[in-house]
Specification:
The complex is a heterodimer of chains A (about 400) and B (about 260).
Chain A lengths: L1 H15 L1 H38 L4 E6 L3 E2 L2 E2 L10 H10 L3 E16 L2 E10 L3 H5 L3 E4 L4 H5 L4 E4 L1 H7 L10 E4 L2 E9 L14 E5 H9 L6 E6 L5 H15 L10 E5 L1 H43 L1 H9 L4 H38 L7 H27 L3 H6 L2
Parallel strand pairs in A: 5-10, 7-9
Antiparallel strand pairs in A: 1-11, 1-12, 2-3, 4-5, 4-8, 4-11, 6-9, 7-10, 8-9
Chain B lengths: L3 E14 L2 E14 L3 E5 L6 H8 L7 E6 L2 E2 L5 H11 E4 L11 H10 L6 H14 L15 H13 L5 E5 L7 H16 L4 E5 L2 H4 L4 E6 L2 E7 L6 H20 L1
Parallel strand pairs in B: 3-8, 3-9, 6-7, 7-8
Antiparallel strand pairs in B: 1-2, 1-4, 4-5, 9-10
Helix pairs in contact in B: 3-4, 3-5, 4-5, 5-6, 6-8
Classes of the chains: A alpha+beta (about 400), B alpha/beta (about 260).
Chain lengths: ~400, ~260
């Protein structure tokens, strides 16, 4: 009852000082709105950076047979034949941090179509390879698991190969080509990817089922490598550890043995990704805290002035029976109401400007729920914190001095 | 026997200013009975303001007894003092001290807002009654800036009445008003006093004392005089005389 009355008194004071209240609120409104908009832009950019880095296959993991020493001579890793299909199956079955995986066998040879020919590489893989490499098809389709099972002579080719063996603009899908004299039916064309960071043309490839490449071209039964992708960039290092463990078991290595394989992740890309997003986050948090702090100081300033300005009124209220606690609550409620109303308006303005930025400036944005919760909470807390001091000062006034104050 | 509203015995109030001790009140004793209209007079530095602050429970005596309506004030906490002020005293100030941009009725309701025993309907009802009592029944929703000085002081008087206090404490209540309005306000006070309300009026103007039933004169922290007024002037008559004089004067001027 009494608190309700004090609440009424506080709202009345706010309504009576519309302009002042609005100006104070403006600090909070802009503070909260900018936090939300900033974080939305930040999250949006983070998201788009994440997408583009992921497109480079940042969560890719490659497993190769390790180098070994035979008769005192260090052997090239590819010579080793220690990586087998059962290793791949073990990883696929046991790993929890791997989303896609594919065996890889590779060879070089000549791609021939009629009178045109072109030297290229052939990769024997399974359909998941496209997901690992994050590449799509511009036409046709990828071969299926069934075609892998039956070692079908089908191939998906890159744009460079298309340009060189189909120079007169023929539609390659459905055509027959030969690779090292083995005929393949072209069933799809890869999207152009350009060169990778080492200057290798990523479009100069022929992709076929690994069974076909193993049996018909290379005549081997081991794998050159296994490619996989971790469920996320952050989990890639853990996935490396997990895969290593599976392979050590698979290869029956004792604790004293060194790995006879290597597992690598795209560490450079991952660290680029995490440092970029870390920097963005720090920057945004800094901007956010500064604007909220300024909003808070605005509240304190106004409440402080308001206490000074209304000293006589406080004296009167005390003379007619207001207790210190009543005065304290009055000013505290005023501060909290200003900051909470400001907070709500700020959230709305923040969401509005985010939509505006997205629609008219075409910046990627993503409103994070946590940014709303945090900015709102912070602004309520600053309201209480910065409202407390002036309110406390008002409640401690001596009624006689306050009444005489001019 | 009439009830004692105020009981003061050997009341002292000292202030320490650095190393010096100022004796504002040096052992004062008097009672105020229900229905009295007392003026407390004195020049500056007589201890008048200190007396007012203590009477109003805004300040506490250094030693001695001060009881209001049977409650000893000396050892009460800040909050308990606030409750006493809220329930037992009605304040009227020289400069009205109304809340700006707030309607008359809301100004009058103010003391009741700090009394949780009064419901909002009763609060409104009592505020309207109080305003009607001071003749402002038709000005309920005017803000102070829309009222004359005399009307503002009437709102303040209504505010002091609204909590049914045992005593109204007025501090130079006519100090800011012209002669005519002063008479009007004084006649309102006399009317309220006739209805049985105890009034203590602190002033330095000797004229005011002639309207009260008793005068206490303070000097240097002591009571110099404390006398009953056998010949109470009627402020309403004075007002009529005053108006006649003004009219006569105007008539003379015209001729």
């Amino acid at each position: 009852m009494r608190l309700l009355n004090v609440f009424k008194i506080a709202t009345k004071a706010i309504v009576l000082n519309k302009t002042r209240t609005l100006l104070t609120m403006l600090g909070i409104i802009i503070g909260v709105a900018s936090v939300i908009a900033m974080l939305a832009i930040g999250e949006g950019s983070k998201e788009s950076i994440r997408t583009s880095i992921s497109a480079m296959g940042s969560n890719m993991i490659t497993i190769k047979a390790g180098a070994d020493t035979r008769g005192g001579v260090r052997q090239e890793a590819s010579v080793m034949e220690s990586l087998t299909l059962s290793d791949y199956e073990a990883i696929k079955a046991q790993s929890t941090l791997i989303s896609y995986s594919s065996p890889v066998v590779e060879g070089r040879g000549q791609v021939i179509n009629g009178s045109n020919n072109w030297p290229s590489s052939i990769y024997g893989v399974n359909p998941e390879y496209l997901n690992i490499k994050v590449v799509g098809l511009q036409s046709g389709s990828m071969f299926t698991d069934a075609e892998v099972q039956t070692a079908s002579k089908v191939a998906v080719i890159g744009q460079t190969v298309v340009d060189n063996v189909f120079p007169d603009g023929q539609e390659p899908v459905g055509q027959m080509i030969r690779f090292n004299n083995i005929p393949f039916k072209v069933i799809g064309v890869l999207e152009e990817k350009g060169e990778n960071t080492f200057g290798q043309d990523q479009d100069d490839v022929v992709i076929a089922p690994y069974t076909t490449v193993q049996k018909r071209i290379l005549a081997i039964d081991h794998l050159n490598q296994i490619m996989a992708s971790a469920i996320s960039e952050e989990e890639a290092p853990n996935a490396v550890i997990e895969v290593s463990k599976i392979l050590r078991e698979q290869h029956k290595l004792t604790d004293s043995d060194t790995d006879d394989f290597t597992v690598r992740s795209m560490e450079e890309l991952i660290s680029t990704f995490s440092s970029t997003s870390e920097m963005l986050t720090i920057l945004l948090v800094a901007v956010a805290s500064i604007s909220l702090l300024i909003g808070g100081i605005g509240i304190m300033n106004i409440m402080y002035v308001s206490v000074k300005e209304r000293t006589k009124e406080i004296g009167l209220r005390m003379a007619v029976g207001a207790k210190g606690a009543d005065i304290l609550m009055q000013f505290l409620i005023e501060a909290i109401l200003i900051s909470i109303t400001g907070g709500v308006l700020g959230v709305l303005l923040g969401l509005g400007s985010t939509v505006f930025i997205e629609k008219f400036l075409n910046w990627p944005t993503s409103v994070a729920l946590y940014s709303i919760v945090i900015s709102f909470a912070v602004c309520a807390v600053t309201g209480i914190f910065f409202g407390w001091y002036p309110a406390r000062k008002a409640s401690a006034l001596d009624p006689i001095t306050a009444l005489r104050y001019e | 026997m009439t009830k004692e509203i105020i009981k003061i015995e050997d009341l002292k109030r000292e202030f320490t200013m650095g190393t010096e001790t100022v004796h504002a009140l040096r052992g004062i004793s008097f009672d105020i009975k229900e229905g009295e209209f007392v003026t407390i007079m004195g020049s500056s530095g007589s201890g008048k303001s200190t007396m007012l602050n203590i009477l109003g429970c805004l300040d506490q005596p250094t030693s001695g007894i001060y009881e209001i309506d049977g409650v000893s004030v000396k050892d009460l906490s800040r909050n308990e003092l606030a409750t006493i002020r809220n329930e037992k005293i009605g304040f009227i100030f020289q400069s009205y001290n109304l809340l700006a941009r707030t309607s008359a009725i809301e100004n009058v309701e103010l003391p009741l807002l700090y009394n949780s025993k009064v419901s909002s309907e009763e609060r409104r009802k009592r505020a309207i009654e109080a305003l009607e009592k001071v003749g402002l029944g038709d000005r309920l929703h005017h803000t102070p800036s829309q009222l004359s000085g005399g009307q503002q002081q009437r709102v303040a008087i209504a505010r002091s009445l609204v909590n049914n206090p045992v005593m109204i404490l007025a501090d130079e209540a006519t100090g800011n008003l012209d002669t005519r309005t002063s008479y009007e306000i004084m006649s309102l006070f006399q009317e309220l006093n006739k209805q049985g309300i105890t009034i203590t009026f602190v002033t330095h103007e000797p004229d005011i004392a002639t309207f009260s039933s008793r005068t206490i004169v303070l000097k240097d922290g002591n009571i110099m005089q404390d006398y009953k007024n056998d010949n109470i002037q009627s402020a309403a008559n004075e007002l009529a005389n005053y108006l006649n004089k003004t009219i006569n004067y105007e008539t003379i001027k015209c001729i």
